[in-house]
Design goal:
Layout (H helix, E strand, L loop, with lengths): L3 H15 L3 E5 L18 H4 L7 H6 L1 H12 L2 H4 L4 H11 L3 E6 L5 H4 L5 E3 L2 E7 L6 E3 L20 E4 L8 H13 L2 E5 L11 H7 L3 E5 L5 H4 L5 E3 L3 H12 L2
Bound molecules: adenosine-5-diphosphoribose.
Length: about 250
């Protein structure tokens, strides 16, 4: 008797074969098997650090404090990490002409490293540093983060990573890109998100309104199931399950 998960993987593979316009919405869990810590759940970053240090008002008051937490949060994790089978699966779905693009909440750049081309970074990225008032932007790799906080050479301000802090707006281009993809999707893959941060948590509903079916991949919970809009929950780690989906789709 094939176990239930195996049957569900077969069902997901069949839904992917039939789909013509797949979109993926990803969160920290898609990078967990690459060694990037998640924010919530066991071992989550918010168990160790106070998320309010990543609130924009606190940053402006004390940029050094925020940068000390940032260095601890991302010490060594973002530089050396590599895409896992889940990132590679989504990139291959795109090259096969199946996947329209990815909306990610992640700032680790691993989808792009895996070869994905259409990636909307809903919460920005770690690649750039930005001066909050003057808007000057610099590549983070051009700065020695041994000296904290990094200072804008033009305006003298403390620079912040160009990802969305609590209290900041989502980049308008990311919202437009996400809406454009999600309203065209006939199948949405929701991978590795707790679905508790607005407005990203609203995005699956947008796809459902457009008629998409929804598959969620997550070992612990399924936010789209709680919303009553889920068609299939693959309960397990994304890297492992996407590797099995790859075997089914491209034996
Ligand atoms: N495969 C798939 N999912 C996983 C895996 C895995 N190997 N390991 C953990 N998960 C799931 C967890 O069950 C959880 O539901 O990934 C999710 C991670 O949740 P969060 O850490 O809250 O990440 P995310 O939903 O992306 O957070 C959204 O919150 O703090 C902000 O800006 C931050 O972008 C982040 C946003």
């Amino acid at each position: 008797m094939m176990d239930e998960l195996e049957q569900d993987i077969d069902k997901a593979a069949e839904m992917l074969r039939q789909a013509k316009a797949v979109v993926a919405l990803t969160g920290a869990g898609v990078s967990a098997e690459s060694g990037v810590p998640t924010f919530r759940g066991k071992e989550g970053l918010w168990e160790k650090f106070d998320p309010s240090t990543l609130e924009i008002g606190n940053f402006m008051k004390n940029p050094l404090r925020t940068w000390q937490v940032l260095r601890a949060l991302f010490e060594g994790s973002l530089g050396q990490v590599r895409p896992n089978a889940a990132h590679e699966f989504l990139a291959r779905l795109e090259t096969q002409g199946k996947l329209l693009g990815i909306v990610t909440q992640n700032i680790d750049g691993l989808h792009q490293k895996a070869g994905s081309r259409v990636v909307h970074e809903f919460h920005g990225s770690m690649e750039w540093l930005v001066a909050p008032r003057s808007g000057h932007r610099y590549l983070a790799k051009d700065f020695d983060l041994g000296q904290l906080p990094p200072i804008c050479p033009k305006s003298g301000e403390a620079l912040k990573p160009d990802f969305v802090f609590f209290g900041e707006a989502i980049p308008a281009a990311a919202i437009r890109g996400a809406q454009e993809l999600l309203t065209r999707a006939d199948l949405l893959l929701v991978v590795g998100t707790a679905g508790v941060v607005w407005p990203a948590s609203e995005l699956p509903r947008l796809a459902k309104l457009g008629g998409a079916r929804i598959i969620e991949i997550n070992p612990e919970s399924a936010m789209t199931r709680e919303l009553g809009i889920n068609d299939l929950w693959l309960r397990g780690p994304a890297g492992e399950l996407c590797a099995r989906l790859s075997e089914k789709l491209w034996p």
